[in-house]
Amino acid sequence: MENVGGLSGITRKRVGFGLAIIVFALLFPLFCPNALAQSSKAFGPDAKFGVPAYNGIVTFGVNGNYSSAEFEGNNWVFTNLRLNGSDPLENFTISARNSNVTVYWHYVTTVYFPNERLDYIAEGKGEQMINMDVGTYGGSSVDWVILTNGTFVSNNWSVSHNGTVTVTGLTGNITIIYFGFMSQLGVSNLPFYEAHSVAIAVTVAVAVTIVVAVVVKVEVKRREEKELSRNA
Amino acid sequence: MTWQTPSYIVLPIYVTIVAVGILLIYKLTKDKTKNISSLRLFVQVAAVFAFFMGLILGPFDVPLYAPLGMAPRSLLLGGNLLGNQFPDGISLPVLACYYPNGRTVTCPIWQIQAYIFPFWNYARGYDVVYSTSGLEKIGIVIGLVAVAAILLGRFFCGWLCPFGLYQDLLTRVRKATRLKHLSFSQKTNKALSQSRWVIIAIFLILSVIFASYEIFGHQLIPGTTPGGPEGTEAGNVGFLNEPFCLVCPMRPLCVLAECAIGSMKYSYVSQIIYGPLAIRGGYISSINIIILIAITALALAYRRFFCRICPLGAITAAFSSFTPFKQIAITKLEKNEQKCTKCGVCKRVCPTQATDVYEKKGGDVTESRCILCARCVEACPYEDALSLKVAGQTVMHSRNWLEKE
């Protein structure tokens, strides 16, 4: 083979072949875009997440996506679940027994105090077991409010120590709200004067009030004595 | 974290309206035997507006309050107080009930019962957090009440308390029907006055007993462990930790008024009423409704009946009418002995039948039963015989209304 550019013919072929592979590898994803989407899987309202052993089905009322959806111990465990128009759920576990559940909204706010809300529709008087992974304090029942069709529900639900809310026997629009009071009472990172600002302010107010009151008393007494001595 | 900021527009407008109203009433009321009463009625109404401003003004659409109604609390204070989240309203010695929404001021009796346990850190009632331990919270409440009492004494009872306004309106209703009021004998009235301390003691002791689980780790009375979902048996038992609130007539009055104007959902309120004969409830129950009806009937017959037995009035009096606080109390009722003719008008018009104003010779005649309503000052026909003084300065004094001006 004749030399071209310092390379023999066989070398040129190998180099060319190698370049072709590189180009192909770079261009290939352009023809197979789904191959890049292994970290996020989309779904729509038609997607069904069944729980055969419990005779339950979980669906989502809107389009969305998730990083992973695993079926473990009759629960669907989602990571990075995102419903269109809602706030994302990092870790979300849900199951349904003798009911169909359609989750359609998740909302997180810190206005007034942190609260997290999930809305779904339940068909069939069964059970829904939901865990929004709210954190260490999620097992306290004082932190949860359940509404059905906008009305407060006192019975028909419970919360386990790991924060799984079980709603029983309710149908229609159901809202689960977590308020996070307990987490607000966790270890405070505020400096002393900020953490105890109200107590400090009140202590100062009491001290000032007493001092002012004593000064007023002394002043009034002095004025009265002066008037008495003038009249005498 | 974002918090609602205090309303810097609402406050100045409110203060301006109140100041102009006070000035107009004072200047325009022709009957000098009524101008203090007219002023007092205006101030009472203005106070109710201020104490429940979040109820009246909104805003709404906060997820927490979806089951309760519409108005959030803390409108004036915003979502924090001095950097601490969830203020539970300022503790002032008035029956601004904790239970309705939209309040800016909170009844200290509720707070004392709720905070009495140093270990009870978590929010048994929502928003009950100054991010501090129970002891500190109780210190805050008592400190605020002490400041208020030293500054104004039972002026709060006479001029600012919403339940006082309710009773005064009942008195006006009775007067409109031309029915005469009833009076207790001095012995009975004194006994009623002393019963306030017994009432406080009973309810504070009950608070400790019912929440013994929190303190000792076991229940002194079975079934009193607080906690559990709101409204359930276990959850509602927690309300026994505030036993006075179970019988206080102000709670059902506030809750029903709020339901009537549509800012609280009766469906929510009625869902947490249960037990035989509906004797227990998170907000209203057969017990507190019956008590409200009874107090209403008694207040129609006896002027300011509840003020004679009010434990909050007793706490206020403790910081203003008894030594050593009596020596430094800034607001006082004073009598000029030389100008008093012992006509007895002051004793007759006093709604709580306080007698020191008549019996004491002169000087400071404020007593623990006196609610500083200034009816005696208004009714006394002798110039400067009686005066209401703040820091030694006369703010109201009796006038010779017998002579034409």
How many domain regions of chain A? Answer: 3
Q: Kindly report the oligomeric state of this protein.
A: heterodimer
Low-pLDDT ranges of chain B: 118-131, 226-234
User: Rough shape of chain A?
Assistant: elongated
- How would you state the average pLDDT of chain B, rounded? 80
Span between termini of chain B? 62 Å
Can you list the strand order of the major beta sheet of chain B?
8-7-9-10
What's the number of domains of chain B? 3
Question: Main traits of this protein?
Answer:
heterodimer, A: 232 residues, alpha+beta, 3 domains, 8-stranded antiparallel beta sheet, 7-stranded mixed beta sheet, 4 helices, 15 strands, disordered N terminus, B: 405 residues, Alpha-Beta Plaits, 4-stranded antiparallel beta sheet, two-stranded antiparallel sheet, 20 helices, 10 strands, globular
Describe this structure in words.
The complex is a heterodimer of chains A (232) and B (405). Chain A is of the alpha+beta class and 232 residues long. Chain A has three domains: 1-39; 40-184; 192-231. Chain A is built from four helices and 15 strands. In chain A, the strands form two sheets. In chain A, strands 1, 4, 5, 6, 7, 10, 13 and 14 form an eight-stranded antiparallel β-sheet that branches. A seven-stranded mixed β-sheet of chain A has the order 2-3-8-9-15-11-12, with no helix packed on it. In chain A, strand 5 and strand 6 (75-83) form a beta hairpin. Chain B has a four-stranded antiparallel β-sheet. In chain B, strands 1-2 form a two-stranded antiparallel ribbon. Chain B has a two-stranded parallel ribbon with strand order 3-4. Chain B has 405 residues and is α+β, with helices and mostly antiparallel strands. The radius of gyration of chain B is 22 Å and the shape is globular. The N and C termini of chain B lie far apart (62 Å). In chain B, a hairpin with a 5-residue loop joins strand 5 and strand 6. In chain B, helix 1 packs antiparallel against helix 2 (35-51), helix 2 crosses helix 7 (162-176) and helix 5 (134-152) crosses helix 16 (311-318). The chains are: A alpha+beta (232), B alpha+beta (405).
